[in-house]
TrEMBL record:
<dbReference type="InterPro" id="IPR029066">
    <property type="entry name" value="PLP-binding_barrel"/>
</dbReference>
<dbReference type="InterPro" id="IPR022644">
    <property type="entry name" value="De-COase2_N"/>
</dbReference>
<keyword id="KW-0663">Pyridoxal phosphate</keyword>
<dbReference type="GO" id="GO:0009089">
    <property type="term" value="P:lysine biosynthetic process via diaminopimelate"/>
</dbReference>
<feature type="domain" description="Orn/DAP/Arg decarboxylase 2 N-terminal">
    <location>
        <begin position="53"/>
        <end position="320"/>
    </location>
</feature>
<dbReference type="GO" id="GO:0008836">
    <property type="term" value="F:diaminopimelate decarboxylase activity"/>
</dbReference>
<dbReference type="Pfam" id="PF02784">
    <property type="entry name" value="Orn_Arg_deC_N"/>
</dbReference>
<feature type="modified residue" description="N6-(pyridoxal phosphate)lysine">
    <location>
        <position position="70"/>
    </location>
</feature>
<dbReference type="InterPro" id="IPR009006">
    <property type="entry name" value="Ala_racemase/Decarboxylase_C"/>
</dbReference>
<feature type="active site" description="Proton donor">
    <location>
        <position position="387"/>
    </location>
</feature>
<dbReference type="InterPro" id="IPR000183">
    <property type="entry name" value="Orn/DAP/Arg_de-COase"/>
</dbReference>
<protein>
    <submittedName>
        <fullName>Diaminopimelate decarboxylase</fullName>
    </submittedName>
</protein>
């Protein structure tokens, strides 16, 4: 499969993920590997990674793209990305080890709100760029350096512009979002001089800042707001330059939104309306436009004469979301007087972010037939198998009229924050199967009873 457009989501050549999966293929995968199972389309992932690299490199000849490991750490997927020239963005010790193994010869960047002493040693010794988030990290590094335990570290500083990146028809959402952007735990606020103070602290300890890092949020679809929020970051880069910092890189993080998954952006006001039986307003869904983002970012960088800097990003969801779908089986239908439930064998233990009011495309299969969903099809709540009320994959979705136990449901955009965020609360974690002709090749096995209890220490 090829994607003709440099931007897989906008314009000609954009393709629906898994549009080409035949009911018989889904049926065979389910029969052979069981359900729930994540189905991975490697060709789509490669095409996406390659398209992004082409777009990014055309705008920024000096650049790095770091794959966000926390979004999905499947070795097969990470390896494919690295073969295509992408580096790794890690946020923990085990991800760092994973990257040092899988991502040799490509750049690795160490992010995250908390880094342990031994992880800092390991990263610096391996030549990994460490993006400072806590100033205590600087203190530890200074102490290690004084003791001669590490070479000169390559440091970046994570900053926070504190500007909104989402819009909503609901002002109560927008207000809460603005506050969260200003008060989050990540990075040093550019406003009020805290970022400058952090930079001064780093200089005082005898280190220099080589990279300026900002990662603003996730599933950002408002391209213009995203660029606008990066302007103060670029201004700060210019200040650091003026103060003679040997800055080499601007890293704009990830957060690029995808169209296959929509998040309800509602606050207390919408909740009240919904409780009163009124339909809260829906916000216009925007689609993140990578081509425009890159063009605008480039001109903002040029306007500040920062063109010689390496311009980097850390995509997670943008590359991974739509290359995996979740194949699940209907366990039963429960028709209550006021609600129809379709209970599936997949739940929030393997798709935890569905709890945040996300909507995804669904397809339904019975043996080798697709079950069509008409626009006037009945609404149902898709419940999962976990033993708590909140385990709902989708509160309200149109389902085929005759949906019944045994039918398959293919849930799109299951590649981001699923495998790596799965837990075994009530149920075992799911297998991942790569599309491979008719059946599918297992690349991550299903968790077993033995796996779950493997941590038990017997006396
Ligand atoms: C999670 C994360 C990313 C990836 O975010 P997406 O929204 O999946 O693109 C990138 N950088 C950092 C520092 C992160 O924590």
């Amino acid at each position: 499969m090829t994607l003709n457009s440099p931007d897989k989501f906008v314009g000609e050549g954009a393709t629906e993920p898994f549009a080409d999966i035949a009911p018989a293929e889904a049926d065979t995968i389910a029969a052979r590997h069981g359900t729930p199972t994540f189905v991975y389309d490697e060709a789509r992932f490669s095409a996406s990674a390659e398209a992004l690299r082409r777009t990014w490199e055309a705008a920024f000849p000096n650049s790095s793209i770091y794959l966000s490991y926390k979004t999905n750490y499947l070795p097969s997927l990470c390896r494919t990305a690295h073969l295509l020239g992408l580096g790794a963005d890690v946020v923990s010790g085990y991800e760092l080890e994973h990257a040092l193994l899988l991502c040799q010869g490509k750049p690795v960047v160490f992010n995250g709100p908390m880094k342990r002493r031994e992880e800092l040693v390991r990263a610096v010794q391996a030549g990994v760029v460490v993006n400072i988030d806590l100033l205590e990290e600087v203190d530890i590094l200074a102490e290690l350096r004084r003791a001669g335990e590490i070479p000169e570290p390559r440091l970046g500083l994570r900053v926070s512009p504190g500007l909104p990146v989402f819009t909503s028809a609901d002002q109560s959402f927008t207000q809460a979002h603005r506050e969260r952007q200003r008060t989050g735990k990540f990075g040093w606020p550019l406003d009020g001089g805290l970022a400058a103070a952090a930079a001064a602290w780093i200089a005082e300890k005898g280190f220099s800042i080589r990279s300026l890092h900002a990662h603003l949020n996730s599933q950002i679809t408002e391209t213009d707001l995203h660029v606008a929020a990066l302007r103060p970051v670029l201004d700060f880069a210019r200040e650091l330059r003026a103060a003679k910092a040997p800055l080499e890189e601007i890293n704009v993080g990830g957060g690029f939104g995808v169209p296959g998954m929509q998040r309800q952006r509602r606050g207390w006001w919408s909740e009240c309306k919904a409780h009163m039986g009124e339909t809260p307003p829906e916000s216009d869904e925007q689609v993140f436009d990578m081509t425009r983002f890159v063009a605008e970012l480039r001109s903002e960088i040029a306007a500040r004469k920062l063109d010689d800097l390496r311009v980097s990003c850390e995509p997670g969801r943008y590359l991974m979301s739509d290359c995996i779908a979740l194949l699940s089986r209907v366990a039963g239908i429960k028709d209550l007087p006021e609600r129809r439930w379709a209970v599936l064998d997949a739940g929030l233990h393997i798709m935890p972010t569905a709890a945040f009011g996300e909507r995804r495309r669904l397809r339904f299969f019975r043996a080798d037939k697709e079950l069509p969903v008409r626009t006037d099809a009945p609404l149902a709540s898709l419940g999962g198998p976990l033993c708590y009320e909140g385990d709902v994959l989708m509160a309200s979705a149109r389902v085929p009229g005759g949906l019944m136990a045994g039918d398959l449901v293919l849930i799109s955009d299951a590649g981001a924050y699923t495998v790596s965020r799965s837990t075994n609360f009530n149920q075992a974690r799911a297998a991942v199967v790569a599309r491979n002709g008719a059946d599918g090749r297992e690349i991550w096995r299903r968790e077993s009873y033995h796996d779950i209890f493997t941590f038990n220490v017997t006396e």
